[in-house]
Amino acid sequence: MNNLNGANIHQFAKIETSDKYKEVTHFEKIHQTANSRHILDFANISVQRNFNRSENVAFWYKPAPRKADGTRAKWGEVLTGLFRTAHPQIYYGDISSKDHYGRYKKHTLLFFVFNTDHTKLAIVEYPNYYPMDVHLAITMISVQIKRYFGLQ
Fold this sequence. Notes:
Number of strands: 8
Strand content: 35-45%
Structural class: mainly beta
Number of domains: 1
Distance between the termini: 17 Å
Shape: globular
Helix content: 10-25%
Low-confidence stretches: none
Order of helices and strands: EEEEEEEEH
Strand order of the largest sheet: 1-2-3-4-5-6-7-8
């Protein structure tokens, strides 16, 4: 299997940050199978510290683009929370946008796959796909992701 049913795969490697931010891990993109306007060159994964009312969120994801000189631009707003799945290395999230009535609509399903020591991250993006039965889809896609990445 060379892809995950048309998903875009973005692979990141951990970059060193100061000890000042122990709850945050920064990653830099090293490979992608397709461009995305949501998944940018840098990823900021921060631990949920319960400053808001979100339930079952383990981490938060913020993207940042690369400047012309190769350095990281300012971090964007939080794009999604990372929710736990049955597998400890796989999390899921989604991307929402406002429709023309001002209502938020989920339109893209994301999976975040970490290696065991959290030094590598893969974001599996299903653009323009958000299922009606999201829990069934997460279960089925998680099995495919485990097989694709060779997770136990």
